[in-house]
Amino acid sequence: MIEKVTLQMSENGKFRTENGTGCESLNPKALLLYAAAQCSAQTALMIMQKERITPKRFEISYSGELSAEEVKSESVYSSFHVVYNVECGSEDDQAKASRAIDLTHEKYCGMVRMLRMIAPVSHEVAVVSTEPAKA
């Protein structure tokens, strides 16, 4: 079974679940993914802000493959996958956002490091620019 949590950045720079549910509605396995998504998102956003960029849109999804077909207390994660989707205003910001995400995932996010001790953590990054292409 795959458990998944998706967070989206709001106008005030906070990350909320895509359906607006709070932590109290998540099971403990999903809470682990939620915590990892919050850590990764906030770390990446902090690095981007140090580079003086604010993404127009930022969404992050964490999914985990569980060892059972349904969530049980004894089920454990066998792998994790992270998808970063970011929309920037320019090509320069696009490159900085990509670098911030790579640094987050490979070096600075403590939750990613902890999850790697449990199971493999793969990721994919999609950073797009809304600036018209230069001729």
TrEMBL record:
Q: Record's Pfam families?
A: OsmC
Species of the source: Alistipes timonensis JC136
Gene3D superfamilies according to UniProt: 3.30.300.20
This protein is called Putative redox protein
In terms of superkingdom, the source organism counts as Bacteria
